Amino acid sequence: MDEIPTRNLALELARVTESAAMVAGRFMGRGDKEASDQAAVDGMRYMLNTIDIDGVVVIGEGEKDEAPMLYNGEQLGTGKGPKVDIAVDPIDGTRLLSFGRANSISTVALSNRGSMLDPGPIVYMYKIAVGPQARGHIDLDAPVEDNLKAIARVKGCDIDDLTAVILDRPRHEELIAKVREHGVRIRLITDGDVAGALMTAWPESGIDILIGIGGSPEGVLSACALKCMNGEIQVRLYPRNEEEKKLAKKRGLPLDKVLGIDDLVNSDDIFFSVTGITDGELVNGIKYFGTGCRTHSLVMRSRTGTVREIIATHRWDKLMALSTIEYDMGDYPERSSGVP
After folding, report:
1. Fewer CB near the last or first residue (10 Å), C or N of the chain?
2. How far apart are CA 250 and CA 283, in angstroms?
3. Do the Cβ atoms of 166 and 188 come closer than 8 Å?
4. What Rg value do the Cα atoms of the chain yield, rounded?
5. Are the CB atoms for 77 and 48 separated by under 8 Å?
């Protein structure tokens, strides 16, 4: 029997990441990471609280005592809809935005309550992520050259045709050297490995693999998106010290196990949205003009596998008459209690 189509929350999430990106984009190149992050948090929280969901933040920006960030355990939404886990990164690439560099994005994901892994005290994961063509052909336990050869083989190209994304960190010196040995091109990034993971599944990006140690919250967010895009991610939790190991064991987190995409988000109905803040290979950044701005977003749902590109034009006179968020610095009529 045919099922009646269910509500696509990803379309509503587009307004969430658009809101965060529009206010954060004002800070491009201004060197003020704290102000840009606060602006994005305010825009994201405001819009999430207009959606009919009973949401709890599982992947946030710290614990409650670090508020006013979107903190782990925070309840969001109207409380009237489905019970969901929420993963947020108001700005993936805060430093990129601060210096006016490429690939700063705003992201949010929803899935069924209890389906997202909470990495707790473990700040980092070792990750490998690929797009649909290489799905099922990677192994985190295998040498990096074996993974590169497998990806090249399944893509029908030479190994030196591949491009890898790796965070530019001292801890990756040996990894970078090994990748270079095989002639693979490397895109070294200073921040923003959610964008890097998504690029592996976006045909126009030219990126074939993300590999290396990056943030654990970003790993869960990447898994949400890659599940929608039919990609793959494998990770291993990477405790930085003995204290983190003890805390992880106390919480029952698997430190020696390779975790697959279903371990990171165990749901078949995930909703994800990303909006560009600065220009990048994945999405274009905010373009401001006198009366408004233009945004570029990708919204997706795992159940249908649909990935939509949304290019939206926003008008300040309309938004500022409805919203309490300062999308523009100009003077506008007194605001109502509505939402954009």
Report:
1. N
2. 40
3. yes
4. 20
5. yes
Q: What is the pLDDT of residues 284-332, one digit of tens each?
A: 999 999 899 999 999 999 999 999 999 999 998 888 877 777 776 544 3
Tokens 């709890």 identify what position? 56
Amino acid at 205: S
Query: 3-state DSSP helix/strand/coil percent for the chain, to nearest 5?
Result: 35, 25, 40
In angstroms, the CA 35 to CA 83 distance is 31
Q: How far apart are CA 236 and CA 207, in angstroms?
A: 22
pTM (predicted TM-score): 0.91
Residue 178 amino acid letter: K
- State the Cα–Cα distance between residues 166 and 172, nearest whole angstrom: 8
Residues 13-28 as b or e (16 or more Cβ within 10 Å = b): bbbbbbbbbbbbbbbb
Inter-residue contact 235 to 119 (CB < 8 Å): no
Q: What is the DSSP string of 92-153?
A: ETHHHHHTT-S--EEEEEEEETT-B---TT--EEEEEEE-GGGTT---TTS-HHHHHHHHHH
Q: Yes or no: say if 256 and 160 are a contact pair by the CB < 8 Å rule.
A: no
The tokens describing 243, both together, are 């204290």
The single residue listed with the structure tokens 């590999």 is 211
* Peptide bond preceding 121 in cis form (omega within 30 of 0): no
Strand 105-112 and strand 271-276: the pairing is: antiparallel
What single DSSP character describes residue 23?
A: H
259 phi and psi angles, rounded to 5 deg: -100, 130
Sign for the CA dihedral angle at 45, 46, 47, 51 comes to: positive
Cβ pair 131, 202 in contact under 8 A: yes
Half-sphere exposure of 28 (CA within 13 A, CB side): 19
3-state secondary structure of 39: helix
Dump pLDDT digits (tens) for 139-168: 999 999 999 999 999 999 999 999 999 999
Please classify residue 80 by burial: count the beta carbons closer than 10 Å to its beta carbon, then call 0-12 exposed, 13-18 middle and 19+ buried: exposed
Per residue, what are the HEC states of 195-220?
A: HHHHHCCCHHHCCCEEEEEEEHHHHH
